[in-house]
Amino acid sequence: MLFSPAKFSVAQACSQLSRNFFNKNITSGYKAAGAGIRLKHTLPEFHVEFSAFAPVWSEEIVKNHYTGNHALYVKNLNDTETKLQDAISSGKTVEAGNLHRNLRFNSGGHVNHSRLWKFITPVCNGGGKVIDGSLKKQIESIWGTVENMMLALNNTTATIQGSGWGWLAVNKQTLNLELITTPNQDTPEYYGYLHLFGIDAWEHAFYLDYKTAKAAYFKNIWQIANWKQIQKNYDIAMATKA
Ligand SMILES: [Fe+2]
Q1: Which residues belong to any copy of the Manganese/iron superoxide dismutase C-terminal domain (predicted)?
Q2: Element (H or E) spanning 193, and its range?
């Protein structure tokens, strides 16, 4: 089995969150395949009830998102890397080159979702609670209020045609805060940005609960934004300054 999610009550889940799950780096989802040959990607551990993100997300949609969508990105990423390694080692240059689309798509899917589980947290664990700090100050200097920035990112995300993500991100060149979108499962890094917070605008992230009311989903997702993690992401991004 790829994962074994622990089962706690919602109350217990909140006490477990900070020490078990949300402090983990996504590289924890990576382990040796054996014999020191290559590493396999694995799902990051999920130490909360799938119902812990209610009322923003139902138990069913979180379970499907994690055990279905995210798990499939992990599987396909491992499969693609195996094929790529085989193609390279056997000198099949054209085949190796053709695998880049699968590699880009599934690596992005795994990375983006591993980050998602960290920059959200249940309401009972401080979800949605904006914290004072350098990020809040910078947001207010640009958008006036945090609420204005949220609305602006929701509007930016709504412009995505098809599937993708909306991001509060730092431009790696200027270190300025920007609101961007990435298509499909592309990461912000692919376009020269570092992620702080993202809105998964794929249908699998909202349709079960919201049907076509995508705007309501964008509005509600902020109730489980993990501002401690988002501030931490900002600190990491700003530390890249030369
Ligand atoms: Fe997703």
Answers
A1: 133-233
A2: strand 193-200
Coil, strand or helix at 32: strand
Tell me which residue has tokens 């053709």.
98
Query: What's the structural domain count of the chain?
Result: 2
| Residue 57 and residue 115 share a domain | yes
Side-chain half-sphere of 100: how many Cα atoms within 13 Å? 4
Domain that holds residue 189: 134-238
Numbered residues of the known binding site for Mn(2+): 65, 113, 200, 204
pLDDT tens digits, the chain, 242 residues: what are they?
232 333 334 445 565 554 344 434 444 345 544 555 568 999 999 889 999 999 999 999 999 999 999 999 999 999 999 999 999 999 999 999 999 999 999 999 999 999 999 999 999 999 999 999 999 999 999 999 999 999 999 999 999 999 999 999 999 999 999 999 999 999 999 999 999 999 999 999 999 999 999 999 999 999 999 999 999 999 999 999 86
Record the tokens describing residue 26, joined without a space. 């996504």
Residues near ligand 1 ion, CB 5 Å cutoff: 200, 202, 205
